[in-house]
Specification:
By secondary structure, the protein is of the alpha+beta class. It has two domains: 32 residues; 150 residues, Jelly Rolls (Sandwich). Helix content is 29%, strand content 27%. A seven-stranded antiparallel β-sheet has the order 1-2-3-7-6-5-4, with helices on both faces. A hairpin with a 2-residue loop joins strand 6 and strand 7.
Length: 222
């Protein structure tokens, strides 16, 4: 944009000032100032403390930290569900161990392979955990409710086949207040190419989930 010549630039900057000055003179010296208004001055009432906006309060969470997942399932349960696995398990690295922790056990004994995962996930509130639970359950059709497992529990079993090898996997979801417990348990037989029965996988996953829920409730942190 081409700049204005100096005189015009000064005029452009001074003109608004001159207009305001004239307006100010008219207000202070004009006929309207000769009579004073009898209208009483009203001041705005300050809100009483009780009328002020309510302050936000932190939501109380039943569980503030995820428990150690590798001690959530009894050693005898691990050895029965995953023969040949070390009871200590292996914790999976997490970006925030306060909010999510997972332990994994897996082993191949002979031709039988088993894998067990136990995860804890913490939400900001019971409502957030309930919404997450419902979303996950809705994505897992073909399962059913597990009575007595936390506030609400659900299990399902899937069978997959790859290169004629079958693998059957059970998944259990449980919500306990603002926490979610997720257990996955699967198995394969590399000799027969067959998978364990639905009943075996489902019962094993539910057993591990019940122990994981109990570990969460017994080690509650507020």
């Amino acid at each position: 944009m081409r700049s204005l010549p100096l005189p015009l630039a000064l005029t452009a900057r001074i003109s608004p000032v001159a207009v305001l000055a004239c307006a100010g003179w008219a207000l202070t010296s004009g006929p309207l100032t000769s009579t004073q208004s009898t209208e009483p001055v009203r001041t705005q009432k300050s809100p009483a403390p009780s009328e002020s906006a309510p302050s936000s309060t932190a939501v109380s969470k039943t569980y503030a930290a995820a428990p150690a997942p590798c001690t959530s399932v009894a050693a005898k349960t691990v050895t029965s569900l995953v023969p040949g696995a070390k009871a200590a398990g292996k914790e999976i690295p997490s970006t925030d161990t306060t909010l999510r922790r997972t332990c994994s056990w897996n082993a191949l004994k002979g031709y039988d392979y088993r894998w067990l995962d136990v995860s804890y996930e913490l939400m900001d509130s019971d409502e957030a955990a309930q919404a997450s639970y419902k979303e996950r359950v809705s994505d897992k059709s073909g399962g059913g409710a597990v009575p007595g497992l936390g506030n609400e529990g659900y299990s399902m079993v899937d069978l997959t086949t790859e290169d004629k090898q079958q693998t059957r996997e059970g998944t259990v979801f449980a919500r306990v207040a603002n926490a979610l417990v997720v257990v996955t348990y699967n198995g394969s037989d590399f000799e027969t190419k067959k998978a364990p029965s639905t009943d075996e996988i489902n019962k094993g996953a539910i057993k591990a989930a019940k122990e994981a829920v109990a570990a969460l409730q017994n080690g509650r942190k507020s």
